[in-house]
Sequence to fold (269 residues):
Amino acid sequence: MKLTKETIIGMVLGSALTLSLTAGINYVSAIGATKQIEANFNNIKVNVEGKKLDLSDAKGNKLEPFIVQGTTYLPVRAIAEGIGKSVEWDMKTNTININHRKQTNDLNYIAAETVKNQGLEQQIIKALKMDDSEAKETRYYYNYIDLNGDGIKEVFVQLVGPYTSGTGGDIGLIFQQKNNGFHLVQQFSLIRNPIIISNEKTNGWNNMILEVSGGGITAQRVELKFNGTKYPNPSDGIELKKNTKVKGTGIIKNDIAADWETGKALYLK
Fold:
């Protein structure tokens, strides 16, 4: 099934009392009563904004949606964290709280450029060795921002599509502008927008802060520091403590889901 964020949040809330349903055998309701049920497992898959969501618990064990009396039930925490929400269980009141992640930041956000850049498109296609059919199905978002303080803006690119996206995010690229062209600096796997360019620097390059989630990873914010040659992938980033104050610029501040539905995004071909 294909779901938007809004639809899936509603399903998460609607299935809030199914947290303790296990293996289709026993159901413990919020009032403590135990009921015997029959659950149908039918290899149900969940797509969020066109991307498959791999569902797993905090220990990485695979979770699977199931059907009880015609109603499909989804694992609350795995779904919520997969779409970047925080989940807390209040044992005293038997309440699941699903919220936007709270951040105390001093940030300026900017949306991606809206004008197609043929030179950049060509270098993206070349870097990823795409054929025409792959390029036609790949959307790209980009911003100009000076990452190393040399006065020449780098180009940060996020690629969205069946060939560049997975449950944990999308491919990201950094290009430098050289000799009236674009030189590939680095490729990232599994990035999520917006990408925060921190005012803090390491080895002359601005630190980056991204959220990682999906693919069995508990949703968290991580910091990427330049090691003199490149940045680490988000999966290897340093986890930020909760409520860490961040100053900088958030790039590619776009609603990718809405763009996908309305067809407003830029395509490589």
